[in-house]
């Protein structure tokens, strides 16, 4: 009876140990490729973060193909052929860093243009204020000068 019990429990324990996932060292380019491909079971998460049996199988397939020497681009093309263009997390040939650089450059140029416009307006406002103040001072001094000249001319007559 003891032998039968050990045989039953011993046989049941072996498959459980075999089914336990083991940690596998990553392959060059694996993380980038897994982040570029969506899990085809739901198309909501990339393969590197999605937890489903299908995603686990696809991760193992990608890892094995990369270890066999197949290029990441070829594997990505094969996934697109099998699951459609929707399996890509990013459209083909799209690099978000390019768009980020262009948007950043556009923002810097716009900020510079706005600053230049604000500075020119401030200068114009300062010039207008100075001119009107100088003109008022000039008019007051001219009136004093004219009054003195008129007075001296009257004295000469």
Give me a quick take on this structure:
The chain is an all-alpha fold and 157 residues long. The chain has helices at 2-19, 30-36, 53-67, 72-83, 96-156.
Structure description:
With 157 residues, this protein is mostly helical. The protein has helices at 2-19, 30-36, 53-67, 72-83, 96-156. The radius of gyration is 41 Å and the shape is rod-shaped. It folds into two domains: 2-87, Helicase, Ruva Protein, domain 3; 95-157. Residues 11-20 have low confidence and may be disordered.
User: What is the name of the CATH class of the largest domain?
Assistant: Mainly Alpha
Give the CATH topology of the largest domain.
Helicase, Ruva Protein, domain 3
Instruction: Report how far apart the termini are.
Output: 151 Å
**What is the C-alpha radius of gyration, as a whole number of Å?**
41 Å
Low-confidence stretches: 11-20
| Main beta-sheet annotation | none
Structural class: mainly alpha
Mean pLDDT score, rounded? 80
Number of domains: 2
By CATH's scheme, which homologous superfamily of the largest domain applies? Cytochrome C biogenesis protein
Residues in helix, %? over 70%
Shape summary: rod-shaped
Tally of separate helices: 5
CATH architectural grouping of the largest domain = Orthogonal Bundle
Brief descriptors of the model:
157 residues, 2 domains, 72% helix, mainly alpha, Helicase, Ruva Protein, domain 3
Write the layout of secondary structure elements.
Layout: H1 2-19, H2 30-36, H3 53-67, H4 72-83, H5 96-156
């Amino acid at each position: 009876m003891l032998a039968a019990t050990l045989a039953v429990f011993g046989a049941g324990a072996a498959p459980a140990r075999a089914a336990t996932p083991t940690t596998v060292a990553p392959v060059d380019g694996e993380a980038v490729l897994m982040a570029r491909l969506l899990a085809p079971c739901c198309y909501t998460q990339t393969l590197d973060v999605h937890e489903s049996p299908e995603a686990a199988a696809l991760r193992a397939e990608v890892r094995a193909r990369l270890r066999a020497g197949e290029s990441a681009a070829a594997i990505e093309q094969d996934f697109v052929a099998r699951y459609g263009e929707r399996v890509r997390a990013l459209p083909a040939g799209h690099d978000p860093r390019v768009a980020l650089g262009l948007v950043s450059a556009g923002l810097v140029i716009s900020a510079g243009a706005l600053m230049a416009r604000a500075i020119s307006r401030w200068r114009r406002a300062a010039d207008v204020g100075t001119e009107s103040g100088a003109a008022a001072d000039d008019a007051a001094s001219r009136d004093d000068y004219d009054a003195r000249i008129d007075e001296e001319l009257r004295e000469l007559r």
